[in-house]
Amino acid sequence: MTHFVLVHGAWHGSWAWDRITPLLHEAAACTHVPELTAASGADLSTHVDQVVAALDGLVRGGDARRADDVVLVGHSYAGLVVRQAADQRPHLVDRVILVDGWAGPDGTGMFDLAPPAFVTAIRTAARPGGNGSIIPPPPPAAFGITDPVDAELLAGSLRPHPLRTFTDRTRLIGAVDRIPGTAIYCRPQTYPFDRLAADIGYAAVGLDGPHDVMLTHPGRLARLLIQICAAENSRNDG
């Protein structure tokens, strides 16, 4: 059985996967959806620790026997999170899949990978909050959501995101590079996620849809996730 650990991106919450989890269950897969804290003092390591705890919890709960496949999926900013988590628990992760995910080698972070205009806009928007700075959520259109109903729902669900997670850099020892990885990039592209994938040695697969494709085209994304895992299992069996 395949266990998908689905990790949401910046400004989102575990609710971002609500439309896709039933479809994965119909395909006889299990899903686990950790919630990344939005506390202003959180940093990249905070979020990595939360995903590592979710992976460890699978084993403690007996849900992730090594005969099963554990697939770690990261959307957008969470590409950085899931790769560092997999680097810390390589024995618990069979595959990493990025969905329009930011990712790079050891020592890179969001602000190293994103274009200067993005970095400037984020720094300009950031404001003090609690123990650190927070970034107010962009409008739904920034995620490719244009349907009025979905845009209204998204606008009411998005939340501020801690700035430190964008300024921090990943700390990798190289274990994640021995785990098979695939990057799904949404078309038309907003940022060069296919190039970022190539730079870390991941196969890149295009998918027609906006950045928040899990909201607009959950069936399309669910099928692709299942197909990627099935193809890898077929290669291993062969």
How many domains make up the 3D coordinates?
1
Structural class: alpha/beta
Secondary structure: number of strands: 9
Distance between the termini: 18 Å
* CATH architectural type: 3-Layer(aba) Sandwich
Rg to the nearest angstrom? 17 Å
Given this structure, which CATH class is correct? Alpha Beta
Which runs of at least 5 residues are low in confidence (pLDDT < 50)? none
Total helix count? 10
Calculate the mean pLDDT score and round it: 94
| SSE pattern | EHEHEHEHHEEHEHEHEHH
Placed side by side, the strands forming the largest sheet appear as 2-1-3-4-8-9
- Global outline: globular
Structure characterization notes:
The chain has 238 residues and is α/β, with parallel strands linked by helices. The chain has one domain: 3-Layer(aba) Sandwich (Rossmann fold). It is built from 10 helices and 9 strands. The strands form 2 sheets. It has a 6-stranded parallel beta sheet, with helices on both faces. The chain has a 3-stranded antiparallel beta sheet with strand order 5-6-7. Helix 8 (193-199) links the parallel strand 8 (181-187) and strand 9 (203-208). Helix 2 (44-60) crosses helix 3. It starts with a strand and ends with a helix. The model has no long low-confidence stretch (mean pLDDT 94).
